[in-house]
Amino acid sequence: MNTKFSTSGLLLLLAAGAASAQIASHAPALKPAPAPAVSDVAPLVATPNPVAHVNGTVLTEADLVREEYAIFPYARQHNGLPKELEPEIRQGAMRMMIFEELVYQEALRRKMTVSPARMQKSEMDFRKTFATPEAYNAFVQSEFHGSQQLLDEKIRRSLLIEALLKIEVQSKSQITPAEVRAFYDQNPDRFKVPESFIFQTLSAIAPENATPEQLKSIRARAEKILPQAKATKTNDEFGLLAEKISDDDYRVMEGQHKSTPVDQLPPPVVQALRSMKVGGVSNVIEVGQAFTIVRLNAHTPAGKEKFEDVRARLTTALQQRKTNQLRAALDQKLRQNARVEEP
Question: How far is CA 72 from CA 12, 14, 63, 81, 158, in A?
Fold first, then answer.
């Protein structure tokens, strides 16, 4: 039987809630990242023990670990995979490893080839990913027992996988401008923009279970601060004041709140903000145990995103969705008549 060296450059898109991982874009399989850390290409733990068979080809534990590290490249720095993600990453790596082997075998079945010029360019590009010739030689020695021929076979395998995916996925996954526009028009709810505000706060907060007398005292403190807040002319001036005397946690950010939809704000704050102009400062607003002063920095009314504003990201999202669908379909098709044995 043939023993296969895993293609670490194929990445995995782990879709939340999916029963199995979706296969993401394909990149040159041998590119170490970053180049100076060539040792990162090798796994921390790698054994030749079989973990799966694909039409007679043995896939090993070492192959699987390399795929896991391709999915989670920080594994080496963290001394392995995060325990809470390990089962999902391992499942995804196994699926990826089997998929790329099936793609490779399909490329061979179709008698696809790689031209000498393409091979030569890929070899040169791969060498350039290493910081020094010595680093490159060390990699070839550790991974391929010093055999340039074995490395060339690995590069050729990666290029064949890339070529077949280009035919079956990349060339078919393009989204036309008309498709983008149609999706926008047919899904108006996806592009609704809720009313939101960007603002700053300066708060005087009463202790938990405060007595009526304490609440009265805290309000008096807030009212005493109010003229200083009203006197500020810019968000920086208001922010410096909030940083100095506010009790709420936003004081460390000069009272700044990012864009917040109205349904995430207390009604009294929404009411005050709606009555203000940008740059205005409210009166004291009572919210639970807090007496808050707000400065309005921006107001976005409810509406719908313009097509021109979403076209680029929508095109990318739709193309990625179509790519995932094509990959999943190819995976299913290749598995139909394949002999895949997993533990």
Answer: 9, 11, 14, 7, 20
Q: What is the CATH number of domain 10-178+317-341?
A: 1.10.4030.10
Quick one: pLDDT at residue 47?
65
In whole angstroms, give the CA distance from residue 210 to residue 206.
Answer: 6
CA distance linking residue 169 with residue 174, whole number of Å = 9
The pTM for the full model equals: 0.64
CATH architecture of residue range(s) 195-301? Roll (3.10)
pLDDT the model gives residue 69: 86
- CA separation for the pair 74, 82 (Å, rounded): 10
How many Å apart are CA 89 and CA 56, to the nearest integer?
A: 25
Instruction: Spell out, as residue ranges, where the chain has pLDDT lower than 70.
Output: 1-47
- DSSP conformational letter for 79: T
Q: How many alpha carbons lie under 13 Å from residue 261 in its C-beta half-sphere?
A: 7
Residue range(s) occupied by CATH 1.10.4030.10 in the chain: 10-178+317-341
Q: Across the strands, what pairs with 198?
A: 298
Q: In angstroms, rounded to a whole number, what is the distance separating the alpha carbons of residues 36 and 33?
A: 8
Considering the chain, tell me which residue range(s) the CATH 3.10.50.40 domain(s) occupy.
195-301
Q: Give the sign of the dihedral formed by CA 170, CA 171, CA 177, CA 183.
A: negative
Amino acid (one-letter) located at 82: P
The C-alpha atoms of residue 179 and residue 321 are separated, in whole angstroms, by 13
